[in-house]
Amino acid sequence: MTTLAYLDRNIWAKGELTEPKLYVLFHRPTTGALTLAVALYDYNGVRVTDELTRTIPVNTRSFMVVLGDYLDAQQIVKGFGSGFYILIVKIVETNEVFALPLLITLGIQYGVEIPDKQYLQYYTVFDNVLGTYINLPPTIEYIPSDPRFWVYAYLHKENKGRLIGISRIGTITFDTGYHQLAYISITLNFSNFREMLVHMLMHSYGLTASVVSHVLEAINAGDYETALKLLRPYYMITFLGRTIAMEFDTEKYEIRLKSQVYLGQWDWGKIFSWGAIGCGLSVLGAVAITAATAGVGAVTAPLIAGACLGGGALGAGLAVVTSASSDKPNTIVIYYKRLVEEGEKAKQLNQKYYNEAKGILDKWLSEGKITQDDYNQMLTVLTNWKTGMDSAIDDIVKVGVEGINASYDDGYKKGVEESKMWIIGAGVGGLLLGLVLGRR
User: Under CATH, which number does the domain 2-105 receive?
Assistant: First the structure.
């Protein structure tokens, strides 16, 4: 019966009484009175508020509820903190359930000075605990100032993109400037080696239960090198089709991603959530399903959420390694040459990661720590990862080579068009990830 339930904006700041507003739309007018039940859940599937109920009258096409005063009162009584939550909206009589993401911030920063603010497209707010993010419109008068959030402003001007990092006190932490094509380096920072490894373990794909157990044993025993060598390819699967290279610094406790992007059209939230793709959606889905059946808080949701909370990056930085713009033709060939050079280096690095991970699997199999089935499954994922990474890098290098061989104008236009297709669709990444996981 219900067509849609949605929030007019997916953020609530402590003290707001008039926002956000919940709208429930019906495909046809209601033929009888219905009961609307609303409650807020954290990403562990635990309800953190009392249930709010409203009666939807007969012959209703659109129903609106102001949630600000309800959330404010509940926050005072229940004491839930900043973070990403799920608003479960349920039509009791029809058992229809909607799971709506909601960012809650207890700290806010007004009057942030953004250069060229007339070109501001949106703010991206990234939760560095859960790995989830949300884009907020430029009309928002404040941004979150809680330590768990990273905030970025994305600007677009004359077919060029620009990303600005904003600290929780409102100062600018980095500014990429305006570019079209850019080869960027993204850094995730951790407080220690163990935390970095836990993060990698909890965001890896294709690991069997036995392998997870032995990786944990290695981490707990302080054998960090073994855990790192095994995990790298399975962690990198998340980034297929988007990243040229990935480096793991064991002295500075950093993971550095190098990627080609088309700054003119890019969802920057995805960049910083790459390492946690699937976490927020899997939890949200689990909560929605259990809400409609056994009730929220059933077994699955906390388990899924727990896997997403392992390890937490302290911060993220971004730097433009090199870039190209149509109004600066001399940058184009330099840019493409850099792509070719970095692509070849990346394939050599990936071969090293492959060899070392396979070496650990060979050793564990010979020692009887894992079964032949464990080994076969892990090796299939590993091989598909290597094939997928090499294929994606080859596509990127091809763009660079063709750009170098062509004239400045023709090569640039061709490169931009191919890059846009590669980046905007993210089809390579999605397809390869499906192949890697689907063939196990």
Answer: 2.60.40.1930
